[in-house]
């Protein structure tokens, strides 16, 4: 399942300005499509050299997934370098509420697009 999202808030704080630079970002998103709702996330970022970066995030979604209402939390991360990109993530087991109770699966978050492979048990 894929859905688009729009970032509605990006508040970045530099934690360590020495190389490699570390940061923390608070992000809000609005999702549309099969995943329809809003989320808030906390990211930790690293920018070691020009053209390279990495982040890890914990994100809480509230809304509807394929017609089922509730909330769930997912963890996701990515690295980017001149050699390529890697994206990975997982739905936190036991984090689903409402009609999303029991939700498990994997997540891939790319710029303005999320892909979920999930099971509701």
Per the CATH scheme, the topology name is AOC barrel-like
CATH class placement: Mainly Beta
Q: What is the mean predicted local confidence, pLDDT?
A: 96
Flag low-confidence runs: none
Distance between the termini: 17 Å
How many domains comprise the coordinates?
1
Q: Write the CATH architecture name.
A: Beta Barrel
Silhouette: elongated
What is the succession of H and E elements? Answer: EEEEEEEE
Number of helices: 0
| Structure summary, number of beta strands | 8
Rounded to an integer, what's the Rg over CA atoms?
A: 15 Å
Largest sheet: 8 strands, antiparallel
CATH superfamily heading: SO1590-like
Strand content: over 45%
Class computed from helices, strands and strand pairing: mainly beta
Helical amount among residues, as a percent range?
A: under 10%
Give me the side-by-side strand order of the main sheet. Answer: 6-5-4-3-2-1-8-7
